[in-house]
Each structure stands twice: as C-alpha cells, then as structure tokens.
C-alpha cells in the first residue's frame, strides 16, 4: 500500500452532519470577533456541514471566521478551506473543521519508514521484450488465461487514485483516458496533465500497469488490458494524502461515473482514524461521506489493507503516528462499509509477511509479493509492473495486491450489462478461490470460506470471464 505508503500516501468525522452553519460556537471556540491573524503557517481544512447546505452560507461561515473558501461538495456537505489563522478550526467549531496537515505537524512518532522501503522499486528492467514469463502474480490468479478469452471492455473505467500515472508509458497510453483524469491535491479537481501526472513517485504507474498494461507482446500485461483507466492524483508532493484530496478523488469518480476505483493508500496523518476523537472524527466523516456517495453512484471502492502485519479489528497502537486507538478506530478508506479490502499473498500463496489481516476486515486476497524469491524464471518476489519512463520494476505491498483485485473486478464488470457496486463486490468475493487458514498460526481465524487472512479467498481472473 503506498504508505500503504508514505510512498504512501502516502505511496489508506464522526460528526452527525446535523450541525448547521451559523449555530452557536462549539465549546472552547475562540470569539469570532477576535482579529484574524494575517501571518503564519497556512493550513487547508475540511469543513463538514449538513449535506445540501447552500454554498453562500458555507462561504460566509468560512470567510467570516478568518478562512478562504476553496471548494465545496454540497451533495455530501464537505467544504475545503484555507487559513493562516491558528484558531480557524476553533472559530468554526472543532466538531466541524479539521486540518490533517496541521495535525501531522503536531503529532510525533511518524512511522512510515518500513512501508516506504517496502514499496520502493526493487528492480528496474527495460521492456523491449516480453516480460510476461516473470509475471507469476498474473498466473497465480489465472489472468494470463483470462486474457485469451476476454481482455475487458472499454466501457469499464477504473480510477487509479494514487500518485499519478505516467501518460507516456507505452504499455499505458491506450488504456489511460486523459479526459477522465484529474489532480486532487488541493481538494478541487483539476483536469490538466500536469495535475494528474507523477511528481516523482513510481507507485501510481506501477498500480496502473497491474490493472491494464497492454497485451502487446512487450513488457508486462495487466489483469484487464482492454479496460480504461483514469489517473486521479490524490498524493501531494510530500507523499501525503489528506482528507480533502481523498474526498476530491471519490467525488470526481462519482461525477465521471467510473466503474470502480483502486486505492493503494491510507489517509494521513494516521493509519487508524478514530470516530470518537475530536478533530479526527471530522476527517473520518468527510472521507466516509465521500466513499458512501461514490458507492451510491455505483462506483466500487477497492483498497489495500496495509503493510504493518496488524490485526485491523483490534488495534493497540498506530504505526503511522502516536495517538490513542481502540476498536472504534478504522483504516481509511479500507475499513469503511462497502469497500473491498485486499490482503496480500506471496509466490507460495501464503499471507505476505507484512500484510494486515482481521476477521471481517478482509474481503479478498491477491498477490502482493514477499521477500522470498520464487524459483528461477518465475520473476522477482515482488510483482513486476510498469514504472515511469517506459520501464518496468518490482514492488511489494498490499498496494500491489489491491490492483490485482481491481483488475479482476473490472473483468467481471465487463461482462455485466447492468451492474451495481454492491453486486460487483459480491461477485468478486463469490468467485474467489477459498483459502484455508495455515496450520499453527493462531492469528488466522474463521473457515476456509471466510477467514481473517484471506477473506473469501484469492481473486480469480479466469472465473471472471467464464
């Protein structure tokens, strides 16, 4: 996962929403008559209000409390604002305004080094020759055989919400749709090549290749080379993804009627977001509303489960940032209702050493690699895929598992004349290959048909096209 990583991001509130603008300030709010600060660190905020509140009311509340109005999604009642005044969130109300960047600057113990190393490019090779022989990951899910039957439909669009996709990579040019791509770093979608192209990270391009790299006899072939992809850059130049960017990505996917999105990341600055903690619950609610809206628009959300070898159902600490956590705290977006959460398997089919798990927290599993090398001729232990500048590289992580599942979901969708997000999620799980818990590992609970390591099993591309 990009941070599922910090490549993360890097390169993955609960308010009721009933608080109306203009209501009495929350407890501890600063007097709105106090002068606005004109100098200081500028922070961006998400502001959560009642859905369908009129924009002029939202704008007035923001500007009247020392902020700049940036963007507004009335369908879900989430606005984006910027302010240099350190009391902006208190003025608006701590139950309505939150800056993840401000929180990130305040927290200690940021612990992403493991995932950054995990998801860095392990090997780089040229792609003038056919590299499919090294794609053990594709053979593990039957994608090589599925491609001979059906490569997917151009009517299916997979949004790659990530660090950007190289628009010039020869294996991705045909699949990538510039008209449907956007940059979401500021919380407002920008449909310009510079806004959705990579800033230096190979993560999004690698994810995109796993989904839809061309079957052209060169390089690698994706799970569903016949579908379209859209690059939606939600990761900023620091390698972080904040709620405003995530909200923008999900709302763009709904507006453009994507079939599904792949999300190989978790929202910063935390790994586990707590629904009952001041501030955090605002960011949580903003993302929750956006994912729910996309789901209602029949856009399926596929997400990586994380790379910290944690039980997602019983967190005892946050590996990304120090703050109190308990069972009410969830991974975003992977822990939200209706999301397909994907764990990772290695060459031998076992749970990857780094993969998170949890009973009810994992929907399906897919190849994400591990650090034990396969037999000679099978390829590197970390899946091989596209990276910028027309090259190919191997990367490990649940970030790599998630796009395998997204590709299979795209194949399933290609064969459905009428589809809903819920139906697509059901079929992806129902057509997976069940995997039993390994003997002697007490972390794995449940039956062969559904357990904490593999969910309903490993995704099956061949079954998706039959």
Please specify the SSE layout and strand pairing.
Blueprint: E1 43-48, H1 55-63, E2 68-73, E3 78-83, H2 88-92, E4 97-98, H3 100-106, H4 113-118, E5 123-125, H5 136-140, H6 143-146, E6 157-162, E7 182-183, H7 193-196, H8 203-212, E8 228-233, H9 243-255, E9 260-263, E10 272-274, H10 280-296, E11 300-304, E12 329-331, E13 340-345, E14 364-367, E15 384-387, E16 391-394, H11 398-414, H12 421-430, E17 446-447, E18 450-451, H13 461-465
Parallel strand pairs: 6-8, 6-9, 7-8, 9-11, 11-13, 13-14
Antiparallel strand pairs: 1-3, 1-4, 2-3, 5-16, 10-12, 15-16, 17-18
Helix pairs in contact: 8-11, 9-10, 11-12
Overview of the molecule:
The model is unreliable at 2-31 (pLDDT under 50). This protein has 466 residues and is of the alpha/beta class. It is built from 13 helices and 18 strands. Strands 7-8-6-9-11-13-14 form a 7-stranded parallel beta sheet, with helices on both faces. The chain has helices at residues 55-63, 88-92, 100-106, 113-118, 136-140, 143-146, 193-196, 203-212, 243-255, 280-296, 398-414, 421-430, 461-465, and strands spanning 43-48, 68-73, 78-83, 97-98, 123-125, 157-162, 182-183, 228-233, 260-263, 272-274, 300-304, 329-331, 340-345, 364-367, 384-387, 391-394, 446-447, 450-451. Helix content is 24%, strand content 16%. Residues 1-29 form the signal peptide.
Describe what is shown at a glance.
With 466 residues, the chain is of the alpha/beta class. The protein has 2 domains: 75 residues, no CATH class; 353 residues, Peptidase S8/S53 domain (Rossmann fold, 3-Layer(aba) Sandwich).
